[in-house]
Structure formats: structure tokens, C-alpha cells
Fold each of these.
Amino acid sequence: MITWRSGTVVSLAEAWSGAVELDVATDGGEPMRALAYPALVGEPAVGDRVLLNVSAQARGLGTGGYALVVARPDALPADPEPGPGHLVKARYTPLQAMVLGVDEQESPHHGLLRDADDLAGMPVVVADLHSALPAVVAGARHAATIAGRRPPRVVYVMTDGGALPAWFSRTASGLREAGWLDACVTVGQAFGGDLEAVTVHTGLLAARLVCDAELVVVAQGPGNLGTGTRWGFSGVAAGEAVNAVATLGGQSVASLRVSGADPRERHRGISHHSLTAYGRVALAAADVVVPVADPADADAPWRDAARAALLARVREQAGELCAAHGGHRLVEVAAGADLLAALGTSPVRLTTMGRGLDADPEAFLAAAVAGVHAVSIAP
């Protein structure tokens, strides 16, 4: 189940909040690019001996294709300072981490959250792919600018369907550094956010009541898991998040997974993942947002016949989704050249399934219009 290697750090590479890339010469002579989380294993240095989990790299996986530093056996970090917190995440794995939960008894926010039960109509954009996060925020900021308002305070609630450590996400780190994201709350088995919470429910409440969020984006971390089956994909949790938002009195906005470039037919137009999550798993109602061409926009990218046909397909699929569900509301948002330009200002690289903005603009525009709509319905 685990492929192991040991080796020596030969150089340090790029670092971002919570993570460090390094180059390792394994004992067998094989060079490897590895990733270390200093909060778990301490700060790596050239010459350190390291124990690596290379399972993902050995299988040639994409998002998770690093060798991961499990330990620096000759330079173990000091014991953490005694302090509050007894939430254990990544529970009963060799690298389980003990954190202070925002909702636990030792938290200074426990009293605030103990009986909290209401999001007071706060808009929550739900997405099944981590790659939607910067596009949603770009759309929200664009909408606020057009309306002559300041950008909303955005909090990311990271679920545990993908990466468990929030530190793995360069996207979240880059958005924080640019001031586009105000906080990250890690829920379930995910950890490493500004706040830790036990469930999506307390994560949402903490985002509003502790972080003063005006807009929340709920999505898994990097590394969507899919099996090519109807139910075997980690994004199914997007439907469950819609239910949580409704239970707490928020306004759910469904960000659709859309593609005009994916070679797999089941992901062309609206992905079957979104159709399942929002059509079968979500029992509560959400606003299902689709991009549509603005006929007044002479520079719109949708003048191309193939792209116009894709938009029409997405609109038709979303209409069928809403009709079958019975509670969802179909919302059309104009997606013109100005929104495409707003996506181009993202402080982090836009990429989904290995494709960027130029290769698959519909993927990012579909997420951006969810952010645009969320700003329009904010209390």
C-alpha cells in the first residue's frame, strides 16, 4: 500500500505557506522531487536524511505526484509547546495531527459557536473541484467592482475529499498573499487552515461568525478522486455541502463543473459529476448558475460557433437538472470579454485537469459566474 524510499536532501526548491519542495537523492541513486510540511516534520535542510512515501510518484499520479517526506529521522522536531486543543485530524494514520478546533471546548470561540445555528442568508458557493476557487473569487471581485463596492470578505471552507493538508494548495496560499482570500477553514479530516473545524456545518458557522465572511466558497482541496463511475468520486460531497448550507439558513450557489476541451464525453458541457452531486445528492435547493452570451458585447468570445453551441448545451443541461430536481433555480449570468479579462488578473495560475484559461475558458467562466451571482444576492 505504501512505496517507501530513504535518501538525502540535496537542495531546497520553491516554498510557500506551510510547504517546502526539495530534491532528494535516494539511497538507490534515483533523484526525486519531494514535498515537506515543516509543521509536521520540521524545517528540512540540505544534508538531512529523509524517509519518503513515494506511492503517488511511483504510480505517475498528477496532483499528488510528489514524494512526501514522512520524517527526518536524524533531526526530529522538538515537541510542540503545551497548549489547548484535542482535535485529532488524519486520525489513526502515522501522521495524525492534534490541533485546536474552533468549535471545541478549549477554543475561545466555543461559546460563540456552541448554540450557533444560522448563516443569516450568507451566500455560499459550492464547487466540486479545487480549481474553481480562484475563478469564483475573481468573479465575485469583478461583480463588486462593477457595482462600485469593495470586494467581499471571502473565506474558503476546505473539505477533505482531496488533499488533507491545506498547505498543499499553492492556490489558497497565493490567494491569501494577494489579499483575495481572507481565511481558510479546514473541516473534517482536512487540517492546516487558519481555523480547524469538525464538520462542514461548524466550518460554515465559523467562517461567518469568527472570520466575518461575506462570501464562502466550499470545495475540496487539490486532488479530486474519480473512478469513472456515477458515485465513486470525491466531488459528491458538493451535494452534501448544499444540504448543510440550507440547514443553516444560507444561500447555496452551485458552481458547475464545465468543459469544452475535456476529451471524455461524460465531462463535456456539464460534467456528470456536477449532475450527480447537485441532481441526486443535494436534497435542498440551490441557485444553479450558467454563463450565457451577452448579445451587446461585441468582443465576447462566444461569437465562435463551437463555443456558442457549448453554451447552449450547458444551458440545456442545467435546465434539465433544475427541472428534475424541482427545487433548484436556474440563473443566467452574462459572461463577456470583461469577465474573461477579470479571470486573467488572478494572482494564481488558473488550471483544471492540466488545462489553463486559454485551453478551456468555459471551465473558469462557469465558476466565475457563480461568484458574480453570489455577490448579487448577498444580504
Note: The radius of gyration is 21 Å.
Amino acid sequence: METTTQQRKATVQCPSCGRLNRVDLARAAHRPRCGHCKQPIALDRPLHLSDAAFDRVVADSPVPVLVDFYADWCGPCKMMAPILDQVAAQRMGNVLVAKVDTDANPMVSQRFGIRSIPTLIVFRGGREVARELGALPAPRLNALLDSAIR
């Protein structure tokens, strides 16, 4: 039983202070709080990741991680925001949805060859398993996740 609980814990970055926290995904609806600043960590919406936290969050996740590589000035990226919010809320605890601002985090963007935004990458076990370029409607995004989970 201890192994099962441990497998459902993920490392996530606090949106307020940037510290990394271990959260129990089975209790995601209970709004975990940051161990440092005590602010809530909402897992029903995309998490913002930095260059420094990216590898740890993606590698430590027991569930698939959908990462949206975006920029604030990008029109199609803005169109994707409500769709990503919806997917994060619907799949909370079973998928982590994250965002990486390519302007603010050039190292991870360069490492994954991001040349077009939005670029959506699904990671599983720390490895890329699926990629799509451009804005996607919700059904296609869910299909991408479903194919990566199998």
C-alpha cells in the first residue's frame, strides 16, 4: 500500500514562490499548499514551469505531463489557454498540465527544439511520447493525451 501512495506523488512548482513541492495526486481536489509559503497549489489548471524546475517536475511525475510551450504575445497560444484550463480540470490527478513561457525559459525551449508556438508535448516517465504543433481543439487534445497514455 505504501508503494501505491508513493507512486501517486508528483513534484510540482509553487506558482507563488517557485519552490518545488511533493503533492499527492489522489488528493489534488483538496488544494495542496506549498510547504514554504503556504499558498495553494491548484492542480485543476496549468502549472507554470521554469527552466530550473522543468526536468524535476516532468521526471518525477507518476502520470503523463502535457506541456504547452507558449508565449504571452502569441494569438493561437491565447486561444489554447481556456482549452488547457478545461483539460487540467477534467483530468486533475490523472494528468499534469503545465505551461512553459518560451521567452522566459529559453533553455528548455531550445533543448526540445521549439520553433513554433504553441507546441504541445506529452511526457511520460520523463520522456517525450507525443507532440503536436499549433492550436488544437479540445477533442483533438484529449485524443493526443489518450494515445500517449496507452
Note: The first strand starts at residue 9 and ends at 13.
Amino acid sequence: MRVLAAMSGGVDSAVAAARAVDAGHDVVGVHLALAETPDALRSGSRGCCSKEDAGDARRAADVLGVPFYVWDFAGRFAEEVVDQFVADYAAGRTPNPCLRCNEKVKFAALLDKALALGFDAVCTGHYAQLHDGVLRRAVDAGKDQSYVLAVLSQRQLSHALFPVGDTPKSAIRAEAAERGLAVAAKPDSHDICFIPTGDTAGWLTERLGRRPGPVVDAVTGEVLGEHAGVHGFTVGQRRGLGVDRPAPDGRPRYVLGIEPVNGTVKIGPAEALDVHELVGERPVWAGHSPVGPVECVAQVRAHGGLADAVAEVGGDLLRVQLRAPLRGVAPGQAVALYRPDPGGDIVLGSATIR
């Protein structure tokens, strides 16, 4: 097969490309330039997509002996990921930009261009297993990225390769060193790639400005404080609530709800965070759309937030009844559905929590 290897400049994508070469594929490496000012996207091990990363990717391609290109996807990334991220927070939602990037950039814009140029598949360093069109969790549970890949359609999965998902991360680093790849010991990037400081609230305030509103006790309706904007909050948040006194019973308070229209943030006790049912919109299926109720495991965060559930499609919506309540579930997040399997839980599909 002709394979386009997306090379971020990290160890995972470098080894993924190397394994694609070993498998006998005709491999071409490509680094995605996702920002007009790439130097601003890295601070130590935070962020990614800097000129340093592009250079690391090019050197890895040289070691592997494959052609290498840099493609400018900055406009698409800004429109589909960054701008949508800002809009979602302004609307009181909690988006996952990595999931959005996979959906709209790496496996939409990049894959479409790859197919148009005659490639058969896109190869990435994501930690997930994909065999015969079946997407599963990675062997390394701590690095599993199937949650952010659950948004991919059957068609997109049919043109994808995830060569490192069957190997623990420690072994991937050892393999990179054996292959002479200089990125073998390179630290993993952390947090949101376009917010390398890690200060999401501050970054959003720079773009949205101050939008003051009340912090309200969800039980009594009492105004407890004022905030600078709903974009600084997410459901389940405990710290930074802007309240100068504890609850009457001395227990912590949490963000229970966000009302962007009137700028209200509602807070209350932990037990009020319990969610027993989810409604998701725009469901995407790794296989065929299920008919009738489906027993599954629902996951609402990239790591953690799992519960046994029963899911059912109704029109354009997905309804998920949780057998045990989950906390910290926010509109804008994704709910991914899995079917337990000895070879690694199988991804059924996902939807955006409404």
C-alpha cells in the first residue's frame, strides 16, 4: 500500500512510520504545520507543532529513508479546532480539541488529500488497535487513545493505520532507540497543543474578554460571588469558583451548571453532579448503526469516567442510560461506547453530549 505517515516530531509517530516501512508499505512522511506562528506552540514539554517538532520529524524520516514534506494546514486547524474551541467555551460547553482535530483535520482534511494523491491509508502514532476495520483499546491502558478516535467513521477507519497500539509506551521508546531515532527520549507533549502555558482560562479571556456574571447556589438561589466569564468554568470544577466562604455544612462546592445566555454559574454539593442518563447528538459509528438497545460501557473522558450502560439510537440522538452514575459530565464532551472484549474493548461509536 501507499501510506502517508503523519509525523508529529514525537517518538510514537516516528516508530509508527518505521513499522509501516517494515511492513513493506510505500511510505511518505508528512508533518502538519498547524499554526502561522509555530514557535508559540511549545513551552518545554507542553504543546507541539513547533519548528523544533518539524525538524525532529524530518530527521526521523531521514533515518527511515522515506520522502518527507511539510503541509500547511494552519487555516483548517484554526477554523475547525481553535475557533470552535473558543466558541464552545463561550457557549458553556466543554470541548475536546484532540478529538476535534482527529475528526476534522487528521482524518478529514489530511485523509481526503492523501486519497486524492493516490495514497491508500494514513498512518499515525495513536495508541489504539485496528484490525479488519475493528477499532479497539490499546494494549497500554495508560496511553490508550481510542476515546479520541471513536469519532471516526467506518470509511475513515478503513483508510487508517495505528501501528503502535499493540505495544506498551516503554517498549516503543526502547524500539526507537534501537532504530537510532533521536526522538526516543523526547518528552511527551502535554495539555492542549495551542495553549502551551496550560492556562486555558487565561487564554480564553484574552480572546473573549471579561464577561462578568453571578456565581449562584444551585439549591438556594443565593448569589455567592461574581466571575469574569463562563468560559473559565466546566461542570465538575472545584477550584477557582470565586466564592469566599464554604458551604454551610463545610463541604466543597462544585460547578453544577453553566448558563451562558445570562452568564450564570451554578454551584453545589458533589452528589448533585451525579448523572444517570446522557443524550448525545451527531452519533458516529465505527461499524453499523445499532438497532435497538445495546449493552455497552460508556466513557465520557479521555482517561476515566466509565460506567456500564444501555445505549439506543432515536432519530439523530443517542440516549445512554448509565447503570451507575458518573460525575463531572459536561455538554460538549464526547461519550464513547465500547463492547468489552478479551482482545481489548471494541469501539462501537461516539456522540457529542448535549
Note: The first strand starts at residue 2 and ends at 6.
